[in-house]
Fold this protein.
Amino acid sequence: MLDCLQQRIYHTPYTFYEEHGLSHTVREKAKLLNRVRRIRGQIEAVERALEQEKGCAQVLHLVVAARGALNSLVAEVIEDHVRVHVVDPAKERDSARAAGAEELIEVVQAYLK
């Protein structure tokens, strides 16, 4: 038996694979990884600006851009999660439920812009 530090077991109440296919994060893996790589580039630009002692306005501009990119990533993952795991407004027969899901997606997008 491995020591607790050597064997890391993470419990999550969520399943990572859909009953009828892969999770949306797996299906959209390439697109999401490209976004993460762009965000990494933006964070590295912040680091370079700090190392080069750039002005606070320039650093803040870079930080805000990186935060916006990260917020967009979060919004995309949440939207996909709602459409896949909660209710897809395009496929929902109950119009009130479909409208509620669409409103939730719009609120998340607006909040994370």
